[in-house]
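Look over what follows to help learners.
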Amino acid sequence: MKTLRILLVDDHEVVRMGLTTLLEDIPGITVAGEAGSGQEALLACESLNPDLVILDIRLPDQLGVDVCRQIAKRWPHINVIILTSYVNEDLIAETILAGATGYVQKQVGNQELLRAIEAVRRGEALLDSKVTHRVLQRMRRTEHLLKATAFQNLSKREMEVLHLVSQGKSNREIAGVLSVSEKTVRNHVSNLLDKLNLNNRVELATYAVKYHIATYLSPEE
């Protein structure tokens, strides 16, 4: 079995020493490095390329969730286990959404941490039902907010043009449906691309379908 290389991130040296002592006695596990801050952790990820980061949720220079988010973005192959002194379900849910594999309470004991590490080695996530429920709630709220604001800056005419673009119609066809010139349609399409920060008609059509533009238009439209 491949040796699991772990980076320990905690601002308390005594905690890192204790974890190192625990982990170095486990076959197939090695402590690749240590870090006492978020910035040190990111530098260590870049230079050491660990398989797993055991990350304190509170660091002197930034929150563990921010460090986790950066690790997930820059090194998606690196797993992260969050260490926390207490369970704040909202904060834990935020770390999971940021890319953490799971979390372990500091006070649970060495065996629980080792079980968590082995779970990560097997490709499993470490979530209890309460945190899972909180994560799903937050994702639903975010999705609802995105849908509610997806078209808020568009005019009625731009909505009509976007809907027709999503149906695969050309500028000429859209001009015929709306009884306007092709130049007017081109201007509307250009404005849509700018307002929605998109690059082309395919992205416009995908956006319109994703956020269900038809539900925002009255039947006659």
User: Anything to note?
Assistant: The two ends are 62 Å apart (CA to CA).
